[in-house]
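Now for today's protein:

——
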Amino acid sequence: MSRATLGNTQLFKFFLFAVVLFGIALCIHPAAAAPSPELWPHWQTQVSDSTQIVDHRPWDIFLEKYLLTNHPSGINRLRYGNVTSADHQALNRYLVQLQQIRVSQLNRNEQKSYWVNLYNALTVKIVLDYYPVKSITDIDISPGFFSNGPWDAKLLFIESEKVSLNDIEHRILRPIFNDNRLHYALNCASLGCPNLQPVAYTASNMEKLLEKGSRAYINHPRGVRIINGKLQVSSIYKWFQVDFGDSEQGVITHLLQYAQGNLADKLRLHKNNLSYDYEWSLNIN
């Protein structure tokens, strides 16, 4: 075999390998290997005796207009296609307003509601900016050749720091607050996701909404269901298993805190061997 032929063969093999890698990357879901919680120390600062309250009324107004909470599916839907240009701009102004707040000067409870509302409002804004789309995973604006979705795009500028959705979830909320119920509060604009709540989170309603969201999701089929005697749960419990006891039995123990009626009875009979599923279609009405 000539050197030229050998070189062409090696080049072809390299090209084929690259194509296979690219295909695998396209098939891997953006949350299939969720980032571990890794504290961003800057945001650990707080002022415990601060009385400052962040105004989330613009988010309340937006949700009241466009969130449908009585859909027959039991999944809250957002009327993206009905959002007016004026209300889209109002949402943008709300996000600008939030970025001007010195978060480190808030007390811890106020910070918690701040980050949750910021995450949810930014997620809705991203979808609106690229609407119509079938799924948020189609909005590939994160940096990197194999990027998928918007989660790593640094779209916010707060206290001189560039911040992404993944930063909020994995570097701020998860490591600072250590509250696995936050997974039921952060909405990813998808049918498989926990419900977007119809009101903004506040320091005063946070506990109530976290409990409500946890109970609603776990007792809905997209959260937990029994199929032919087998337990199928949301992929949230796989991606973030470390937050739910770091084992399948830990997940079941968590689910039993909120499962009701027949579901609770069936969960008690399962030890592990969970299967996972998630629906990424847009939570549109």
Q: What stands out?
A: The longest strand covers residues 230-234. The beta strands are 67-68, 77-78, 156-158, 161-163, 224-227, 230-234, 275-277. Confidence is low (pLDDT under 50) at residues 12-29.
